[in-house]
Amino acid sequence: MSEPQGTEGSTERLPVLEKPDDTGPPPETPAEGEQGPRGRFWSARRVPAGIVALLLLVAAGAFLYDVVAVRAGRSALGWRRDLARQLAERPLDDTWVRVGAGVAAALGLWLLVLALTPGLRRILPMRRGHPDVRAGLHRDAASAVLRDRAVEVAGVQSARVKMRRRKARVRALAHFRELDDVRADLDGVLDDTVRGLGLARPPAVSVRVARPGRKG
To answer: Which of 23, 78, 166, 180 has the lowest tally of Cβ within 10 angstroms?
Structure first.
């Protein structure tokens, strides 16, 4: 019978791998449910970009055609001669010059606003559980959820919800029970519902309860 090789008279203790306790809660990451930025979704601005591109294409094509025609020995088109004469003769304080400058400045400012603002105001960003995945909830869908939960409260006959990015306004009509009791129940139910939507910035809920008006 052979002896195991190694140092005689010494025994090495092997490392022991401890099995984690499955009964306890799983460890939470420092940014669980809030990974990545929580900003709004950016709009592609396809319609404004298409309009600007089309206008630039038409203007550039017209000027290019006229320049090529002049280089080929033909006379410049009448609209370009008139435009050059008007720009040379009209003073800067002329009414049409001011109007044209104002329109150009307004269009430029509009394009800057479109370029610097995200747009898609009706899409509410949701909490991110993974940095590579983003989700959003349409305001109409969030309003429908709050309205459905509101009418489930005892005493509520109907409800209207106006959802904004920062605030949700709920207007309910109660046909029985005390208004204060109905309002308290609505506050609790709607607060839980807003938290359950999973929004990155849950809006504050404003509740107003009234009696339905008399018919006739």
So the answer is: 23
Inter-residue contact 146 to 158 (CB < 8 Å): no
Half-sphere exposure of 146 (CA within 13 A, CB side): 34
- CA–CA gap between residue 37 and residue 200 (Å, rounded): 9
Q: Which residues pair with 173 in a beta bridge?
A: 158, 210
Prediction pTM value: 0.60
Can you give the three-state secondary structure of 40-103, one letter per residue? CCCCCCHHHHHHHHHHHHHHHHHHHHHHHHHHCCCCCCHHHHHHHHHHHHCCCCCHHHHHHHHH
Rounded CA gap, 137 and 198, in Å? 9
Q: What is the pLDDT of residue 31?
A: 43
What's the pLDDT tens digit per position in 198-208?
Answer: 999 999 999 99
